[in-house]
Amino acid sequence: MLGADASVAHSRRIAHLDRWIVAATIVPFAAIAIARVAGSFPLWLYLATLLLGSPHVLATAGLYLDEELWPVARADPLRFLVLPATLVVLGAAAFAAAPTRVGLLLVTGFFLWQTQHYTKQNVGMFAFWARSRGEAAMTERERALIRATTAVGVLGILRAMDLAPTWDPLLRWGGLALIGVGLALAATTARGPRRVALATAVAFYAPLHLATVDLLPAAFTYQAAHGAQYYLMVGAAVRGSRRARRAVVPAVVLGSLVPLTILTPAMFAAQPWLFGLGKGVAAAHFFADAQWWRLRDRRLGPILRRRFALA
């Protein structure tokens, strides 16, 4: 439990969360703009986005190590422990057994699933953005608008995969049309800074359609934005837990070496089971993450609301 002075300081830090949320969310626009100016996706940008994005899955450990959150996981081991561990094993097995062509389809399916996961986090980020500014809670219309952007992201990932080149114009203009409709609806849904924030969330996948982006730059760029958002949320959630803070930073730093070795095209070709293991860890994170941020959960809700000054 935070003391009175610590609670005030914590609330002040949460009040500035909105600026960091915006900075994290516009990562794709900045990265792809740099690539356009440079004429290619520079190596340093590859490394920066890769290291910012992929290791974020290990930050989930902070939630498990938090003294107040861990009992929630321990009380429901199937949801928080068994099923995530099963996904790690299934990821390695699926890529080990699949022929190369099927493996490519698995990668495509995984990225499409990631898109849905990123969109769900964008919904949460907008909600926290609004509350950190002392504004009204997210409306159902705002929630629906952001959720609908998954379709834009899916079209963009299909473009990046380039499985059917002749479909590219249709995918691109379809994505841009959906973005245009979304921005028009956002303009009539909110006002002032809230309208700008909603439009940013609605246009999150626009870089995938405003430019021709290869799969790896697209994947790394959006993982980086998602990872930056996630570090903010976990950092705010476990700030009061010394044990969690001490574990998260080393885990993320050491874990940053893993993507450089196993989540590469060369590893996909040479040791698909190891590549699949990495994807399985990411899938386990996606699943566990969906459990941890349930504000309506009777045990987690009160804790999270207090941590984010929502109560």
Task: Give structural notes.
With 311 residues, the chain is mostly helical. The chain has 18 helices and no strands. Helix 2 packs antiparallel against helix 13. The longest helix is centred in the middle third of the chain and has 33 residues. It is globular, with a radius of gyration of 19 Å. The N terminus is likely disordered.
Task: Quote the distance from N terminus to C terminus.
Answer: 14 Å
Residue runs with pLDDT of under 50 for 5 or more positions: 1-6
Secondary structure: number of strands: 0
Radius of gyration (CA) equals 19 Å
Mass-distribution shape: globular
Largest sheet: none
Task: Determine the fraction of residues in helical runs and give it as a percent range.
Answer: over 70%
Structural class: mainly alpha
Question: Quick summary of this structure?
Answer:
The chain is mostly helical and about 300 residues long.
Ordered list of secondary-structure elements with their pairings:
Elements: H1 4-15, H2 17-25, H3 27-38, H4 43-53, H5 61-65, H6 70-75, H7 77-97, H8 100-132, H9 140-161, H10 168-189, H11 192-202, H12 207-210, H13 215-237, H14 242-255, H15 257-262, H16 265-270, H17 272-292, H18 300-307
Helix pairs in contact: 2-8, 2-13, 3-13, 4-13, 7-17, 8-9, 8-11, 8-13, 8-17, 9-10, 9-13, 10-11
